[in-house]
Structures are given as C-alpha cells and as structure tokens.
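Box 3.1. Reading complex inputs
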Amino acid sequence: MSEYKKIIDTIRKFNRFYTVNMGFLNSNYLDSSYSVAETRILFEIKMNESCTQSDIVKILHIDKSYLSRIVQRLCTRGIMQKIKSEDDKRTTKITLTEMGKKETDRLIELTNMQIGAKVAGLSKEDCNELCDALNTIILILGKEVN
Amino acid sequence: MSEYKKIIDTIRKFNRFYTVNMGFLNSNYLDSSYSVAETRILFEIKMNESCTQSDIVKILHIDKSYLSRIVQRLCTRGIMQKIKSEDDKRTTKITLTEMGKKETDRLIELTNMQIGAKVAGLSKEDCNELCDALNTIILILGKEVN
DNA sequence: AGCATTTAGTGGATTTTGTCAACTAAATTG
DNA sequence: CAATTTAGTTGACAAAATCCACTAAATGCT
C-alpha cells in the first residue's frame, strides 16, 4: 500500500475515532449558557488579547453578521466590550470585561476537567507517549501551509 | 509540571490546531447537497452495512426525531431504504440504495482528496511517522472506556 | 483632488438545524 | 396479562446559521 493511501486511511480512521471519543470538542455539553460559537469566540479573544470582529471572522470562518449579533448579545450580557478604534473608524476592538475573563477562565477550566476525565486512567508512560504523539502530529501537519 | 497538567495542555493545544488545520472535519464544504449530519449518517450506514435508526442514534448521539426526518428525506431522494424487520416489527433496517452507495463512495472520495491535499507535500518518512503517531493516539485513548 | 472599489460592521428576512414532548405500535419484564 | 420499555413518527418550537442589502469609513486609481 502506498504511503499516501495508508496515511489517508489512517487519518480517516483517526478522525472518526477522535470525533466520537473526544466528541465534546465542539459540543455545548460544556456549559449550557454559552453556545459552541460563543465559546469558540470567547477562547479566541482570550488568546488574541484584543482583536476586531473581522479578525475573528477570518480565523473562525463564521459569517460576519452572525458574529456581529453574537458580539452584541455578549456585550449586553456584560461579557465583552466594543471599543471604537481611533486609527480605523470602521473597526471596533473587542475586549473581555472582567466578568468575561472570569467566565472564559471558567469555561477553560471546564474543558480541562473534561479532558482530564478522558485521560484519568492513563499511566505516566501512556501520558508521555500520548503527548509525544500529539506534538508529532502538530509538527508534521503544521508543515503543510494552507 | 505534572503529567496530567502537561497532557491536558497538550490535548487542548492539539484540539485547537486540529480543528483549525483540519477544519473540514465537520464541514459541509464537502458537498453542499448533503448536510454534515446527513454525511455522518451515510458514512455510518456504509460502515455498518445495515443498521437500525436506534443504532445510529446510539453511535452518533443525535436525536431520534431528527434522525427520523433525515432518513425520510434521504429515502424520498432515493439514497436509502427502510426495510421492516421481521423479527422486531418496531424496527426498520436502513440500507443504502445503489445510488446511495455511489453517492457515499463519492463523498468518501471527496474527503480522501481533501485529506490528500493536506498531506500532499509530506516525505515518506513524515507519512510513516504521522501514521504511527495517529495510531498511538487511537491506541492509548481507546483504552479509556466511556 | 475626485470617483470607484474595497472593507468593517449592522440589520432584516429567511433557512437550516436541532430539541422537546406527546403519541402509536410492538416488545419485554415480571 | 398488566406495566414498563423501546423504536420510530409527528407537531411545535427554539437556536443556529446564511444571504442580502445597506451605511460609513478607508483605500486605490488616474
């Protein structure tokens, strides 16, 4: 079997396994008070400190009007703030409020616990091996630029 | 850093990387004529040859009423068939029609090409290493029963 | 400069997706 | 054989996501 056929089959098998086994990846089992999209947006802002809506649109590939409404909702809920940019008056910087930061941290903690539950029974050796394997994949697939 | 903290951080990093980099996983960029749910259902029936709706409900964790309607739709589109079971008259076996099989194969071929594009530039060595890493993850995480 | 095009974000209207509860019919429990 | 469970269907809704048209600001072009 050629390398390509083998790797494609393996990735296919992995995807199937991972989405079932780690199915919470894109689930709202996390916390019913935030949708999947909201959660991803919160995580993204957390990572990027401060960013514009179009930044998020580009990264997460979601519709700009959809995002706009989500941001509005989260603003009225006191989770984030829109700050008019001085240099480019079309754009608004989005930042988390104190409450938003706390909430995001809480959500991260929740996912950590879910992940923790998944690996709870693993031995030290398995943990290390798993880490290596995950990093290997990031390294190799990261070479492919898109 | 403890093994657990390390592995949780790594999985978190991996999830982020993989959903962005391999984002097509659960996308309908695949083929606009089938929704994500429809595609998953088609793949599942393909794998299990013949199965009941409740089988699929259990495997894919989707609402039975939701599934029922999707199956109906795909039946009227000539993709699949419901066959009354003799032994248990509550259940209906679902099978793909010839057209359904062709369509499913076509969808699989499409994902294969998407995956292929992702790994196109990899060396033989990288391919093998990647395969090993993916299989390692399946092996280790597969130990954890849920 | 001045006009055309692009970009950021908003809002209306709609479709798609997914959920919940109630129901029928058949199977299972005990 | 009555009570409970299971498989699937349907109605009514709610949530999520998309499409399109629009305003205002920035950028490109000649």
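In summary: The radius of gyration of chain B is 19 Å.
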